[in-house]
Amino acid sequence: LSALRSVRAKLALLIGAISLILVQVLILNSTGNFNKIFFSITVPDVNIIQKILLCFLFISLLDNLESTDITTLKKTAQTSFAIYFIHPLLIRPLTRLPNVLGFNFQGNLFTLLIATAVMIGFSIAIAQIIKLIFKKNSRYIIGW
Q1: What is the pTM of this model?
Q2: Which residues are CB-contacts of 59 (< 8 A; sequence separation ≥ 6)?
């Protein structure tokens, strides 16, 4: 990991990932994930290499934040097990909420980020309420 700490290494990973995106789209004429029959020989799957490069890039970027104390992230980590159990109960009501309120929009990255933040926020709030009511016995209900 020490080799990934330099700005040059991070830039090389980013340029490599972007280059593989361009190779896949412009040269191989393929967009999205590859779907093919098992053992069939088709165009090279540069998607896997690109994702590996991006993993190393994100690991190197997050390494800088290792000693940073982010309260929101710490609370999310503490309640993550409870979030896992609570969020499926909230998916249907929260996905229907925009239609009930009269919002008609197409999904995009921004709405995905908003929906994810709302889902996590509500899940943490419900977990806190269950923890307040049941104290130590809340572990039997939500695992926290």
Answers
A1: 0.64
A2: 1, 4
